[in-house]
Amino acid sequence: MRIKAADIIVIILLFCSVFFIKNLFIASGAPVLVLITEKGEKELSFKDQLYDLKEETGHEMIVEVKDGKARIKESDCPNQICVLTGWVSSCGDAAVCIPNKVAVYVKCENEDDGLDAVSR
Amino acid sequence: MSNAKTKMTDLTPSQDRTALIGVFTALSIVFGIAENFIGLPLPGLRLGLANIGIMLAITMLDFKAAFAVAFLKAIIVPLVTGNFIVKVSIGLPATLASTFLMLTYFKLCGRFITSVSMGALGGLVHITVQFFTAGTFYIQSPAVYGLLPYFAAVSAACGVFTGYAALMIEGYLKRSQERSRKNDSENYTG
Predict the structure, then answer these.
(1) Which ranges of A1-120 does DSSP label H, i.e. alpha helix?
(2) DSSP state of B136
(3) Sorted alphabetically, which CDD domains does this protein's record hold (chain A) (predicted)?
(4) pTM, rounded to two decimals
(5) Subunit contact B152:A21, Cβ cutoff 8 A
(6) How far is it, in rounded angstroms, from Cα B103 to Cα B110?
(7) In CA terms, which of B88, B128, B182, B189 is 20 to 30 Å from B158?
(8) pLDDT per residue over B51-108, tens digit each?
């Protein structure tokens, strides 16, 4: 009993498929960066940019967008959870600051379709 | 004298099959309990040694035997290891789904493949169904699927390992079956 050539091919294919398994469950589609504040939702562009939220929220907050990822760079909130969350880039990721009522969220277009809706 | 001895071991094919189902089920259950004590880098993941019994039933017996082994293993191992309801609700669908797919795979391309790639497939299906049931009934957050690729990769690697183990055992079993058949015929003629 020995391993056959087809075995190796199938195993390699299975390992490649690992990278696509996630897409079975998480909605794909074009990601959109959404900034949520007390005043409502706003779409952010994917261009590298710093957003100063002092005027909007009255708090010392800076949101940074870079290389298609976003993060809350600075915040005056006590726990710094939103800053420690780091970069958000894939569908459903979010960095949230509850005391200042600010969140950066990656929204995907067909998120309300399919399995994702069931699991909620 | 030798005739009496051979008669005792001379089982009909259906008796042989029943005995093998029992052996494979026992193997699965013992491995299933034992692997609870083998830790892996990712929490909650097991080597899948219990799958060896199921794979042997697929390659050496038939689909009824494979499902019998899979079902008994999925019920009895949680009975012994505890946390019965959670483990059965997550594990039973996963075990049955992976058994079904491994069987289909073996029936379709059994001539070209061995249990090594079948094990990898089974591991992958098992962990995916587990994530789906756990995500639907227990965790209810899509974030859990973010972990799936890592679990799936480790699971497929474990499947290769257990598949290879099953292949070795299968080879040994077939050799010993042939040997006993040969001995029997020698005894009859001699």
Answers:
(1) 5-25, 54-57, 81-85, 114-118
(2) I
(3) DUF1312
(4) 0.67
(5) yes
(6) 9
(7) B88
(8) 999 999 999 888 899 999 999 999 999 888 878 888 888 889 999 999 999 999 999 9
B111 touches chain A (CB under 8 A): no
Tell me the domains of chain B and their CATH numbers. Answer: 16-177 (1.10.1760)
Amino acid identity of residue B101, one-letter, is: L
B116/A2 CB distance under 8 A = no
How far is Cα B180 from Cα B66, in angstroms, rounded to an integer?
24
pLDDT at A37: 80
* B171 in A contact zone (CB under 8 Å): yes
H or E stretch covering B162: helix B148-189
CA atoms within 13 A on the CB side of B169: 22
Check if the beta carbon of residue B124 is closer than 8 Å to that of residue B152: yes
The full set of domains in chain A, from first to last, is: 31-108 (2.60.320.10)
ipTM surpasses cut 0.85:
no
Chain centroid to CA B144: 27
- Confirm if A15 and B152 have CB atoms less than 8 A apart: no
Cβ separation B148–A2 shorter than 8 A: no
Q: Which of residues 12-41 of A touch B (CB under 8 A)?
A: 14-15, 17-19, 21-22, 24-26
> Positive or negative CA dihedral for B23, B24, B25, B29?
positive
Give the separation between CA A106 and CA A22, rounded to whole angstroms: 16
Is there a contact between B116 and A7 if contact means CB atoms under 8 Å apart? yes
Q: Does B13 touch chain A (CB under 8 A)?
A: no
- DSSP structure class, residue B142: G
Searching chain A, which residue's CA lies closest to the CA of residue B146? A22
Helix B2-9 to helix B148-189 angle (10° resolution) is 150
